[in-house]
Amino acid sequence: MAQKVSDGNGKQHVTRYCRWLGISRQGFYKFMKASNKPWKHAAIAQEIRDIIAEDDWNDNYGKKRIWEALLLKHPDGDIPSITTIYRILTKMGIIRKAKKKPNGITKADKNSRKSDTHSA
Hints:
The protein is mostly helical. The chain has helices at about 1-5, 15-20, 25-35, 40-55, 65-75, 80-90. It is flat. The termini are far apart.
């Protein structure tokens, strides 16, 4: 749909397309306006790619090590926070959200007998 509207062929059917997709016209035009802008973190993303390409072992760096490496490269520069670095890495597909592990798999059975070694 965005391609048709940007070409000028489907401009009169925007309302119909938006209704069919379940989105608002304002939301569609906001998407179109934002799609023409360059990514604001493109420079940091390129520096992250450079850090990873420096050494074979750098490909398993996490968000904190990448952030520290950026601080070493630019000690007086404007480096984003660790959270922003995590978002950039996630968008680049380098890092993913860690799965939460359960604290315990087994449940204690209250009806089972206690072992002889612990009874006094």
